[in-house]
Amino acid sequence: MKRRPRGGDRAWHPVAVTVVREAPRVSLRLAFSLGATEEPHAGLAVLTSQLLEEGTRRRSGLECARQLEGWGGLASSWCHYDAFGLSVEIPLERLGGAVDWLEEALLEPGFPPPALGRVARRIDSEVCSESAEPSWIVRDSLLREVFGEERRGKPLAGDPGDALRIDREEVVAFHRKACGRGLLISMAGPPGIERWVRTLEQRFPLARGPSRRARTRLRSVRPVRKRQIFPLAHAELAHLALGARSVDLRDPRRPALELLGLVLGSGGQMTGRLPLLLRERKGLAYAVSVELFARAGRDAGAALVEVECAPSQVGEVEKIVRRELEALCGVGPSLEEVERARSTWFGWRTLAGETAAQRADRALERLLLGISAEDDEEELERARAASARELSRLAQRLFDPAALRVRVGLPAAARGLRRRPPRPGGRRRCAR
Amino acid sequence: MPKRRFFPDRTVQQRFRLHSGCEVVLDLQPGSGVLAVAVGYNAGARDEAPGQEGLAHLLEHLMFRGSPGFPAGEIDRRAAELGGSVNAFTSHDQMILHWVLPGGDWRSVLAIEADRMRALTLDPVSVGLEKEIVRSEIEASREDPWDRLEQLVLARLWGGHPYGRSVLGSPGALRRANPSALSDFHRRHLSPGRAVLALTGDFDPEEIRRSLPSLFAPAERRPGVRPPWPLPRVPQRLMRLGRRGVEGVPRALLALPVLAASAAELSGLEVLAGLLAWGRSSRLVERLVEREGLASWVDVELLEGDLGSAFLVVAELVEGAAPPEWERVVFEELGRLRHGIFDREDLARTRAQFVQRLRASLERTLDRALARVQAALRWRDPWIPERQLERAAIWQPRHLKRLARRWLDPERGGVLGWSLP
Fold first, then answer.
1. Cβ-count burial of A396 within 10 angstroms (0-12 exposed, 13-18 middle, 19+ buried)?
2. Contact (CB<8Å) B132/A53
3. pLDDT per residue over A127-161, tens digit each?
4. Distance from CA of A130 to the nearest CA of B (A)
5. Which residue of B has its CA nearest to A67?
6. How far is the alpha carbon of B197 from chain A, nearest alpha carbon, in Å?
7. Tell me, what's the pLDDT at A428?
8. pTM metric for this prediction
9. Nearest-CA neighbor of B175 among B206, B205, B132?
10. Left, alpha or beta for A158 (phi > 0: left; psi -120 to 50: alpha)?
């Protein structure tokens, strides 16, 4: 159920509610409209979000967890570049208890100092673990180049050591700033959840409608190091990543770009050009992935092509990827490809709305991006109308060879490369 | 106005066997607007002959490379045009192929499944290409520190048994794979008598029942009996393994051999796993992550096998945490379970989690189809998830204590593996 706010404004009501007939439990999402892009120090948004689970002014985090889990519920914090908040999955009959906890956790968090140190160490450890993976190293290096000095160029939780340098005052101040932005609330679940809308409005007076921040335009950034090759200590395969700046998630060209992504091979479909050629026809790679909205949100993300292949074949693979991107920019996709992508796009849209959790997430994303029900209809219309020519024009914009950055990570043993791999942040080693 | 579809209650869940021997499970969710199809075979990596390691998994890849009625690429194309997706996976015991589609166009899906159940094209060029792809998959798995640690530990836990080998096989065995060995494996093991077909979601069951016999008519009736395989021999004491110089953070994996997946008591072990690691207030998470801050995360999972399962305790440690400290906490908590130290609140919480997890696992149409197929293959009962819901209420502390004493003592046999920076 989507309710119109008073006064006939085209925005959604502060609480977006979707009834899902067979849902076994309620999925509730509450978000502060403030994320990593606005933190003064990298890692602060992630740390603040995780500390929301560490207790309130009245109860410890463990007490709260014990109660929620005892009801068969599940709570988790999350953070993105544009927002952070809490998610709860809970049986309908226990929704009241979950709302009590959410109110305390979001509006009166305790941020206990011992928890701060422990959570910061945990985040740091996760960052260290992730940043040792070969595919992550190559992707990270490329994204830093694509985004330049922007916050989206760094991983969400920052670099190793970042979380450890944050103190409690910064967390409290960031939370205060987040409260000033207001809350976004979305809920999906079985019939009966509608009754809770009024309660949520009363309990969360900070609830706001969708935000309407200005959209970032596509910018052309001069590459500094367009192509870079480096060794990877623990790799068996070569890791190739090509990328460029994409658009934000509110961009009206998003449906057409998603179709372009499907033509290229996003979503793991073997019918996309790149997996079809590299994997199915030539057997050059097992993993081929295409993503046109990496780290995108209110601001532009990145378009990425990533391939893992044998070190001896990385040259051939790169040549094929470049050739296909150029072909898309020039001749464009065939009508058959566009129609197939369109069928997939509409089908996946249905499949992505099966569960209450998926519906709640989708509604929250729309609140966050300021997309109304009317915009939703427009989006469907744009997907229906997108032509091969439009997709070709978009490909020219995204995959301009002059703006395309490339990173190649090769197993150190394979080539005897001596150059050092890029170290995230360049400050501290993770391994002891 | 669209015609309202109505299915009486008795037709919501159906189960029957086709003349070919293939078992069919229908699980309707009228009005869901989604259809999932899963075909599972009681065949997997443990059916490979010595020297053929990885053949079942390679064959799973080749199931998409063409059958007499559907040339290579056609299956993926059809899935994309229907707005859905198609995929597959192989374990030591099973191979499962699955589809999910928006809407009920099941005819082409079933025609494809029937065709590739009968035979595959297996032309040498496709086999060669797919061998290259799998080789790349094996290398990617070697890059993953968790995959490497798990392989090391399971190889020691299950000894020379096929459960101790990677489903992906080895590059050497992969080189030897050829169309004739693959065709032979398909003919011997992927027979209708060892298959289960499950449809879940929105469809007309009567129409399905009418179409299936002709679609799945066998060219020849092949045996549905799986060749026996001896039970794995497991260590009789705790063995410790370690790798140093691994990237990232310290990782630990404790593997204890437990009951076969078909045993009724296995859900009791799942409750014990829940007591240890479901949620922040579970015993190991509370101690290792929340209180003592030794690990960034910890989990317990049951790696189910028809001939024996493994109870796995896995964790990533935080910087500065000492591995012996982690071991001490884990062994203490396993000891508390063996001594029957259960508090009522703990058990009630774990039961509530058990019920909610099971319900959530049946929410998506595809997950439901996979659950039905796996349950039918393993327990010969596709409705096991619902029965487990009933069973969750009957586990009492004395039952759980008995199970923990029998199975959760590392000193009586198990493998503890570390990968350290």
1. middle
2. no
3. 999 998 999 999 999 999 999 889 999 999 999 99
4. 7
5. B349
6. 21
7. 43
8. 0.92
9. B132
10. left
